[in-house]
Design brief:
Layout: H1 8-24, H2 32-44, E1 48-50, E2 60-66, E3 70-75, H3 88-103, E4 109-115, H4 128-134, E5 143-150, E6 154-155, E7 161-170, H5 186-199, E8 211-218, E9 229-238, H6 241-262, E10 265-270, H7 282-294, E11 300-301, H8 314-318, E12 323-329, H9 340-345, H10 348-371, H11 373-386
Helix pairs in contact: 1-2, 1-3, 1-10, 3-10, 5-6, 7-10, 10-11
């Protein structure tokens, strides 16, 4: 870097990568071209690449260097049905940019980039970081860094514990006018369940910050046919993982009693692993904030005891390795995430300057860890104390 900016050819390479992934707009677990492009570009930069990784075709691990400290970077590249309205194309570009810049500056140590599918919870690799964390993929890492586009600059993170289920009710079809007595209305059972779960809010203390989301995937086929099958998806969140499990058990009891009252069969299937609440590391987050402050960028300092606004499988990573996080402002404040408006701001041609600052902040934080081993020790000590 010269005068706080990256060489034009390097930045162009990063932006071109992000634009390709932005245009691919592949949803979770189907990020075939996105993951292959990112992995191949890292390989061309001298990284050794393992792909597929941990049994997931669109996951990978890329390594360059040797010895400790080992710095990990989390790359995401899954889109939503309306495209990259969460800006994960910028996360992958950030991870790539940090990795290739840092690799040229480190005298010792190792950089590991993890390609992590389906953060949005879609498909067979839903919440892949949960599996990676559970399988010990990060056990050798000294510190991890993650990034997310946002409508504000921030360091640190807080997130809900989160889990989703698919409730499938199966009854019996019949003519709704001629022989309704011969049918078993699966939609009735699903609606009773919806109402019952909704009423859970009245018996939950607000200090657990419960969040309940539901929608009907299937609700019948015609008005003159008793609905034989109805499918309800339920998403439950709380700032307490143990309390979330209580919510899950109550949800299951409501669904079972509703199905029994109507005479339906019921299948309850999880559609995501448990996303655990985030454990922020103030030492790492302060390092990221120092670059932002030096550039006179006002930024929030998010602590993990603050009320979250969402969930992420990065929370599971933060519980097995000290993790720093930076939010990169790409849109005007108040722009809703997952919206078509936010997707437009995630176009890397619009987000270039912010992306460059986010890369620079992370590179500087990593270099400080190499320059001063006491910082790494303090980050690990804080992690151990929280764990």
């Amino acid at each position: 870097m010269k005068n706080g900016s990256m060489p034009e050819d390097v930045m162009k390479d990063i932006i071109d990568l992000s634009k390709s992934i932005y245009d691919f707009a592949e949803i979770g677990s189907k990020e075939v071209r996105s993951s292959e492009l990112l992995a191949s570009k890292l390989k061309a930069r001298g990284f050794s690449v393992q792909k597929p990784f941990d049994g997931m075709n669109t996951a990978f691990k890329a390594i360059k260097g040797s010895g400790h400290p080992i710095i990990g970077l989390l790359a995401e590249y899954d889109a939503l049905p309306n495209g990259h309205s969460c800006g994960h194309n910028l996360i992958s570009a950030w991870a790539y940019g940090v990795a290739i810049v840092l690799a040229e500056k480190l005298p010792v140590g190792t950089i590991e980039v993890y390609g992590t599918p389906a953060e949005e919870g879609i498909g067979e690799y839903s919440g892949s970081k949960v599996k990676l964390a559970d399988d010990g993929a990060f056990d050798r890492i000294d510190v991890m860094f993650g990034m997310h586009p946002s409508d504000v600059w921030a360091t640190g993170s807080a997130s809900f514990s989160d889990v989703s289920y698919l409730l499938t009710f199966v009854g019996k079809a019949a003519h709704a006018a001629d022989s309704p007595e011969s049918g078993i209305n699966a939609l009735d059972a699903a609606v009773l369940t919806y109402i019952g779960i909704n009423f859970m809010r009245d018996s939950i203390k607000t200090d657990k910050h419960p969040v309940i989301g539901m929608y009907f995937r299937e609700a019948g086929t015609a008005t003159n046919v008793v609905p034989e099958r109805s499918v309800l998806e339920v998403d439950l969140r709380s700032t307490s993982a143990s309390f979330l499990q209580q919510m899950v058990e109550k949800m299951k009891r409501i669904a079972k009693s509703s199905a029994d009252s109507v005479g339906c069969s019921l299948d309850i299937m999880p559609t995501s692993p448990l996303y655990k609440g985030y454990k922020a590391n103030s030492i790492l987050d302060d390092l990221l904030g120092e670059t932002l402050s030096a550039k006179k960028i006002d930024h929030l300092s998010i602590k993990d005891d603050m009320i979250p606004s969402g969930s992420t499988d990065e929370g599971n990573v933060s519980r097995v390795v000290p993790t720093g996080h930076i939010d990169v402002k790409i849109s005007p404040e108040g722009t809703p995430g997952h919206s078509d408006e936010f997707r437009k701001y995630a176009d890397p041609s619009k987000a270039r300057q912010s992306l460059e600052i986010g890369i620079e902040a992370t590179v500087n934080a990593c270099l400080r860890l190499f320059d001063d081993p006491s910082i790494l020790k303090r980050a690990k000590d804080e992690f151990a104390a929280k764990k």
